[in-house]
Amino acid sequence: MRYRFDEQLDNLNQALIQMGALCEEAIENSSKALMTGNLDLAKTAILVDEKIDRKEREIENLCLRLLLQQQPVARDLRLISAALKMITDMERIGDQAADISEIITIGKIRAENGTLLIGEMAKATIKMVTESIDAFVNRDLELALTVIDYDDVVDDLFSKVRNELIKRIENKKIYGEYAIALLMIAKYFERIGDHATNIAEWVEFAITGTHRGERDS
After folding, report:
1. Is the pTM value of this prediction over 0.85?
2. CB-based contact 191:95 (threshold 8 Å)
3. Residue-range domain boundaries for the chain
4. Per-residue model confidence as pLDDT tens digits over 98-126
5. 90-111 CB burial, b ≥16 within 10 A, e <16
6. Which of 48, 54, 95, 186 lies in disulfide reach of 161, CB 3.0 to 4.6 Å?
């Protein structure tokens, strides 16, 4: 019986890896669309979001089967509960990558010199998503904590992007509508970082049995 349960847990790990890879693909496509002005890449990111939604439902059903059929013990129950929480954040990551792509498509937005730090934000959030999923699959608490701390890097990049946009508006080097679109895109990348942080916090819960929000309250 335990062998069958471990096999299903491995299936859950693989499904989470696949969902994480889709999230990375969506972020990367939206980022490349922003840096190059390639609207086809932006449209692809929106299509990837639909795959992420389907993968969320698949993992949710797998978790529910594990809960109903296997009657997991405390540690296993934490793993499954954490996975259910994680896929909600992963689904939101897909939504926000799609939102970025929609802004790019509608406004035909492309990053220019002086706004390229947004690309650095995208790289940072991809790193956070990848490492948060790896932390869950490998039960790596140290990596999960590293992801949580790395959110400060994304927040700092967002502040720099915002300040640079304000400066460029003041110097009349950029027009308002374009600046607002870029600021919205930067904000979505910041939110993706927040969701990756949430995932890492649920990994911490799965391993330690304590959630950061409970400990800080």
Report:
1. yes
2. no
3. 2-216
4. 999 999 999 898 887 667 788 899 999 99
5. bbbbbbbbbbbbebbbeeebbb
6. 186
